[in-house]
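[Automated response] Your request has been received and processed.

Submitted sequence:
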Amino acid sequence: MLHDEVIRVYVGTDRSQLLAVSVLEHSIKRHTTAQVEVIPMIDMDYPIPKNPKNWQRTGFSFSRFNIPKLAGYKGKAIYMDADMQVFKDIRELWELPFNGNKVLIQQDLKHTDITMKKDNSPVKRIKQCSVMLLDCENLHWNVNSIVQELDEEKYSYQQLMADLCILSEEEIGYTIPFEWNSLEYYDENTCLIHYTDMGTQPWVSTRNPNGSVWFQEIRDMLADGSLRLTDLKKEIDFGYFRPSLIRDIRYGKVVPKFLLGLFNRKNTALDKLKGYAPHKSVYQEKRKRINAVREYEKLNCPDAQEMG
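Generated structure:
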């Protein structure tokens, strides 16, 4: 790595997770001496696919495909989701060799026997493209063209997002270790934890078994002045973070293990009393998409409606 090379990290996010991006940035920078630029990709204006089955699942799902353009089709870049936290030097990820590939993504899955038992886990865990190393000089992606090809049914949303079907198999390297996209799992080997189960992310739920790790990052930020308590309270007032988070930050570290269950139940009760609804805007968009799919199928697949 060149001494003056800047590691560019593009983060997919929406307004509700901007503070989570700050936590991610803090965790990256305190574990490296490299120059790092963290770029939140927010409020990007992308065309909407005609078929609502192909709509973005989040407000930033298509953002990763815009990175080469944002980087001027030069150098390389890292993509991450906002709901992550880093524990090792990001140069380990940055310096992975492409070996002729254009994109590097997750190598394998581990620890599913543990993470599938946690609250809000999915029916099945799959490898994700939520951490990517991109060779921007050799990726000529254009989001408008990608959406057009979705409309032309050249591929499905699932094939695009999970399989990266816009690249050939030879252009994809499966060499990012699980430890750099550790799905809901944390131990001494974890380089990056991904709080991928939305319903139990530490800032919206008391039920994440690794929540204390994220809380400590917040405490470190408050201690070094990179975050103010008023900033945290502002996100809570907006409804983006749960009201009980303040109690976790202030008292969670000193609560005895045998009282932790009671402490979390009180926090949950407080959130309920305050009328807190986690990821309210995300779930509103999900319902909107589900209703749009029904209407689309009613208009375009009447036979399927009758059979159903």
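Summary generated for your ticket: DSSP finds twelve helices and nine strands in the chain. Residues 6-291 form a domain with the Spore Coat Polysaccharide Biosynthesis Protein SpsA; Chain A fold (CATH 3.90.550.10).
If you did not submit this request, please reply to this message.
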